[in-house]
């Protein structure tokens, strides 16, 4: 019946949101509209979150980021043995040095705290 496929699409949309939602704004809306069964998922015209580079610990801050296309190839038949392949096309980002005076020290502290909390939450979720 259609029940399982809708449920599975919901689950997959959730997975996509978890993977990409960290980096991309509004992924939940886009993921919800996907037809996931083709095994080839294409998300177009995405905006990167300002926090997308935070985990990389770079000496820069993301000002704006845009992604023309994010494509996921999902090997439904061999999900356990085959990788999900992520293709990124047309990535453009504008960064500025971290010593940027427009970001007060308090805001940097807050971001670091948020990032740490997120990591702890991920570990909890993974059962580590």
Task: Tell me what you see in this structure.
With 128 residues, this protein is an alpha+beta fold. Helix content is 37%, strand content 30%. It has three helices and four strands. Strands 1-2-3-4 form a four-stranded antiparallel beta sheet. The N and C termini lie far apart (37 Å). The model has no long low-confidence stretch (mean pLDDT 78).
- The overall average pLDDT, rounded, is 78
Question: How are the strands of the biggest sheet laid out side by side?
Answer: 1-2-3-4
Our estimate of the beta-strand percent is 25-35%
Specify the overall morphology.
globular
Binned, the helix content reads 25-40%
Number of strands: 4
Tally of separate helices: 3
Task: Name its key features.
3 helices, alpha+beta, 37% helix
Task: Tell me the layout of helices and strands.
Elements: H1 2-20, E1 24-25, H2 27-32, E2 40-48, E3 60-73, E4 85-97, H3 105-126
In a nutshell, what does this entry contain?
With 128 residues, the chain is α+β, with helices and mostly antiparallel strands. The protein is built from three helices and four strands, in the order αβαβββα.
């Amino acid at each position: 019946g259609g029940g399982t496929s809708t449920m599975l699409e919901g689950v997959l949309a959730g997975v996509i949101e978890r993977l990409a939602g960290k980096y991309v704004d509004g992924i939940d809306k886009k993921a919800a509209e996907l037809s996931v069964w083709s095994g080839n998922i294409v998300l177009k015209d995405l905006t990167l979150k300002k926090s997308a580079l935070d985990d990389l610990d770079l000496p820069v801050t993301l000002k704006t980021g845009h992604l023309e296309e994010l494509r996921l190839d999902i090997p439904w038949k061999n999900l356990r043995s085959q990788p999900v392949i992520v293709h990124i096309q047309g990535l453009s980002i504008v960064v500025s040095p971290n010593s940027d005076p427009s970001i007060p020290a308090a805001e940097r502290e807050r971001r670091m705290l948020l990032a740490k909390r997120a990591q702890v939450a991920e570990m909890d979720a993974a059962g580590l």
